[in-house]
Amino acid sequence: MIARSWDGLTKAEQAEAYAEYVRRTGVKDLLATSGNRGVYVLRRREGDEVLFRVLSLWDSMEAIRRFAGDEPERARYYPEDGRFLKTLDPHVEHFDVVAEGGPHASGAQGAELARELETLAEGDNWHGPTLHELLDAVSVEGAAARPVPGAHTIWELVLHVTAWTDVFRRRLEGTAVEEPEAGDCPAAPQPTSHAWAEATQALFAAHRALTARVSRLSDAELAAPILGRPFDRHFQVRAAIRHTVYHSGQIGLLRKGALAPSGGRAGW
What's the rounded Cα separation, in Å, for the pair 63 and 4? Predict the structure, then answer.
């Protein structure tokens, strides 16, 4: 593992504004670069000035080049850095990490959260049936049935969970996303076997992509803020887990006990 270190000096009265600017620019891009293993933004007041140090951890120099370009020894600056910084030092330093330790060094939190996410789809689930178990025998008619007037169908819930799972993943990757492009509750298409198969496949693909992204999060990344949101990545992952659990319960109720409008049971 390689540590990349950069220093910058700003006026004390600009320190808070610059810290926020760094979060929105450099930190966002660092965390979104493949091979990054975490970022720390440090600062220390020195009289009327504040020294900033950005320390990032990397798998390799090749990973650093994906962020810094063909000259990784040169600092990467953003358009408004000159408004805050006393000088734009072109140099950065790189160090080989020869030891690490402590409860937050290994990325164990991300691995544990990924395992918890994985069991929501299949495995030994703590809250009830997995998504695979819930949807395995649901027919097209059952997925499109609306046994409770004004409530969502199983199909609509599947589309909703898929859309938001993708939003959660993109937020973890550093993209500011308010809600899915298709809206909070995407409309279901005409019910056909092909369309229902596509819907379930998209759900599990989105869930796998989110799980894979979470598995790669270092503890430092989990503590980093979500761009444009008042919480960090750890909170976002927990919210994603709760979101899937909540709607799995709704799907389970519709699948197991709801009556079709005709008075008979919907075909599951």
Answer: 11
Q: How far apart are CA 39 and CA 31, in angstroms?
A: 7
Q: Has this prediction a pTM greater than 0.70?
A: no
CATH 3.30.70.100 holds for 2-96:
yes
SS (H, E, C) the chain: CEEEEEEEEEEHHHHHHHHHHHHHHHHHHHHHCCCEEEEEEEEEEECCEEEEEEEEEECCHHHHHHHHCCCCCECCCCCCHHHHECCCCCECEEEECCCCCCCCCCCHHHHHHHHHHHHHHCCCCCCCCCHHHHHCCCCHHHHHCCCCCCCCCHHHHHHHHHHHHHHHHHHHCCCCCCCCCCCCCCCCCCCCHHHHHHHHHHHHHHHHHHHHHHHCCCHHHHHCECCCCCCEHHHHHHHHHHHHHHHHHHHHHHHHHCECCCCCECCC
Residues of the chain with pLDDT under 50: 258-268
159 neighbors 188 (Cβ within 8 angstroms):
yes
| Domain 2-96 matches domain 108-257 at the CATH topology level | no
Domain ranges of the chain: 2-96, 108-257
pLDDT per position as a tens digit, 56-104 = 999 899 989 999 999 999 999 999 999 999 999 999 999 998 876 665 5
Which homologous superfamily does the CATH classification assign to the domain defined by 108-257? dinb family like domain (1.20.120.450)
